[in-house]
Amino acid sequence: MSAANPLWGAPHIVGELRKIGIDLPKSTVAKYMLRRRRPPSATWRAFLKNHVKDIVAVDFFVVPTVRNQVLFVFLILAHHRRRVLQFNVTAYPTAEWTAQQIVEAFPWDSAPRFLLRDRDGIYGEHFCHRVRNMSIEQVVIAARSPWQNPCAERLVGAIRRECIDHMIVLNERHLKRILTRYFDYYHRWRRHQSLEMDCPSPREAHPVDRGPVIEIPHLGGLHHHYEGAA
């Protein structure tokens, strides 16, 4: 079962075995499951963990509009507290435009120590020159290895699943407005497992006797948050 179903974990196999009359504890199933090589190395994990407060990650993703225009969204994400420091949208990305986003995100002496990115050709010589002048060390992930930029990839996936996939984007201005509203929800109300179910901007936990629980919608009712009414 483990070999034939690589997406199954031990609990799933335990349940399937019970359906055919075999009752085994989860620990036993986990012991004899097929061991697969996991791509992230311990060294890479250690780097991300040890420098979490000094790393920002950048990435692009594309969004088609209702008129089949392709828009490019550029993100700058701080690993610590998972905050989106800067985003912008353009139909014509260039190295100069991308470098300007870095400058606007880190004025004066607020630049991070490391910038994590992929090998996209958009990060050309102009971009690299600007980043070097800001004393930022670029950490370039291996080719075809998006798992080495996990926080940015996870954010892009969350944006698609929780927002863009449920919207019809009209144009560049409309997409900026949608993402501005989503990031307001993302920072203030969306819980993150990596933050022990807190938000990037720490969210107050209300006592149970504060008052009746009310529902507050976000993004036109696509998401909600709940709080006790004082």
Descriptive labels:
230 residues; Nucleotidyltransferase, domain 5; 5-stranded mixed β-sheet; globular
Description:
This protein has 230 residues and is of the alpha/beta class. Among the domains are: 1-36, no CATH class; 44-167, Nucleotidyltransferase, domain 5 (2-Layer Sandwich). It contains seven helices and seven strands. A hairpin with a 4-residue loop joins strand 2 and strand 3. Helix 1 (10-19) crosses helix 2 and helix 4 packs parallel to helix 5. The radius of gyration is 22 Å and the shape is globular. It starts with 9 loop residues before the first helix and ends with a strand. The model has no long low-confidence stretch (mean pLDDT 92).
SSE blueprint:
Layout (H helix, E strand, L loop, with lengths): L9 H10 L6 H7 L9 H9 L4 E10 L5 E9 L4 E8 L4 H11 L8 E4 L7 H9 L3 E4 L9 H13 L9 H17 L24 E6 L4 E6 L2
Parallel strand pairs: 1-4, 4-5
Antiparallel strand pairs: 1-2, 2-3, 6-7
- The CATH topology name of the domain at 44-167 reads Nucleotidyltransferase, domain 5
Beta content: 15-25%
CATH class of the domain at 44-167: Alpha Beta
Number of helical elements: 7
Task: Give the termini distance in whole angstroms.
Answer: 53 Å
- For the largest sheet, list the strands in their spatial order: 3-2-1-4-5
Rg, Cα atoms, Å:
22 Å
**Looking at the structure, what is the overall shape?**
globular
**Main structural class:** alpha/beta
Low-confidence stretches: none
Tell me the name of the CATH homologous superfamily of the domain at 44-167. Answer: Ribonuclease H-like superfamily/Ribonuclease H
Provide the succession of SSEs.
HHHEEEHEHEHHEE
Give a count of the beta strands, DSSP E runs of length 2 or more: 7
CATH architecture tag of the domain at 44-167 = 2-Layer Sandwich
Task: Summarize the amount of helix as a percent range.
Answer: 25-40%
